[in-house]
Structure formats: C-alpha cells, structure tokens
Amino acid sequence: MLIGFAGLGRMGWPMAARLARAGHTVLAYDPGLGAAPDGVTAVESAGRLADAPVSISMLPDGATTRDLVERGLAGARRGHLHVVMGTVGPALVRELAARGGPVELADAPVSGSVSMAEAGTVTAMVGATPDQFARLRPVLSAMTAAQVHTGPVGSGSAAKLAVNTVLAAVNQGVAEGLLVAEAGGLDLKIFYDVLRTSAAGAPYVGYKEEAFLSPASAGVAAPVSLIRKDLGLALDVAAGRRLGLPGTEAAQSVLDDAIAAGLGDEDMAQVLAALRLRNTRSNDKETIS
User: Fold this and answer.
1) Where does the 6-phosphogluconate dehydrogenase NADP-binding domain lie (predicted)?
2) 160 belongs to the catalytic site
3) Which of 160, 189, 229, 285 is catalytic?
C-alpha cells in the first residue's frame, strides 16, 4: 500500500522504516531532516502525502498536526484516511475529525519507548469507526505488536493520556523510592533488585533500571519535556470535567523543576536528579534560616 508519513523524529523514524520493511511504499515528509530510513522516499512537501490513500502523522504537538491536516492534506481525494499517532489530546483530534471534507480522521497513539518502536513491540490505541479500524489494522500491525480499538475517534488519544498519567506516577514513585532507600543506607542496585521483583515490580520498573541508576549510559527513551507535555494535556482533560488529580499535579511540578534545571531533553527518569536538587535547595534554605 502507498502510505504517507509525516514526522521522522525519535518514534516516527523506526515506525516508517518498519512500514517499508513490511512491503509498503512510504512517502515521508519532515522538513527538519534531510534523510529518510532505508526504503522510505523523502518528499519535499506535505502535499505529496495526499497522493496516498492513507497517511500517518507522528508529530510533536497539536499545532503541527493541525497544519498538516488543514493545509498539507487539503488536496487529498475523498476517502483519504489520516491517522494521528502523535500525542496531541482528544479535543484536537475530535475537532479535526468534525471538520468534514475529503479527509477522514482516526487516531492511534502508541505506548512504548524508542527501542520498542524499533522492535515493533509498542501498543496502538485506536480511535476509529469499526470499518476504519479494519482498514488500518494491517498497516498498524507492521509497526505495533497490539492494536486496541478503544472506540470512536479521539478515544485513542484519551487512552494515551490516561496511560501516561499512570506512567508518570510510577516514574515519580520509583524516584522517590530510590531516595528513601538511599536515606536508609541501602545500596541502590540492591534496592532496585528488590523493587523489580516486588509487588511494585511493573514492567516499566524493570526496563528503566539503567535510566535511573546509570543515566549517562542509558540514552533517552522518553524525554522529560515530552511527558510534561502529555501531563499538561491530561490535566486539561481532567479540568474539563472538574476533576482534581493531585498526584498528577505533583508529578508535573517535579517535571517542571527538571526542565528548569536544564533536563528537558533528558530521559524522564531524571526526575530523580530534579528531586535531589529540590531537596538540596530546601535543606540549604533551612541551614541559612
């Protein structure tokens, strides 16, 4: 199948590459990059993506996603199906879907890290009609291990924000647990072995060990700035229903501290460094007073 793909960033690059390896013809647009994965054809304008019956976007924010759908795909033929796979929130996805016109819209954000995208083991949460889901599933299966039909358009984005709300809480909990273990005189590697095999040993805990204990060598799976953006979107959804999420607000506050400390591009496990910095400053103030 001919597929248009917008956004060759950290997640988009391996996902487009997997589509090509699965035998699809992929036209990719990303103005920030001068190259494309093997087997993927880079095009010079977003409008070229409209030549395909299906297009996908893995873009960093709502503004670029809106621009692609409203302007880049303006020349698409009726029945063109665009899949929003970036995390932009359900409100925007539903707004774009309600515009009408020749472009149909579905959303299928994914849960998983860059290494999981490379291996094709991420999970897609798909907001679409049953017919759209049936049409998209063979395409999504080339990039993802599981495709869950969450309901109508926008529901996939809502599910992604809910997942990342839990993820941020787990991430914050691991960091705070490490600080408690450290304060109690425990070797952190030994404590992490306990944590990984305990009742709190979620899969995330296992595969983030290096990121927490040896961040310099671990690389970046999900940057602080990205999870902060997602929590902001989750809190927007909650605010629309007058829901208070104190744990999420606390996690957002620590992520803000991490960004202020220049850690925005570092892995989200660096909330541990932000918490250490926060506690150092608090202790310094107490000493001065």
Assistant:
1) 3-150
2) yes
3) 160
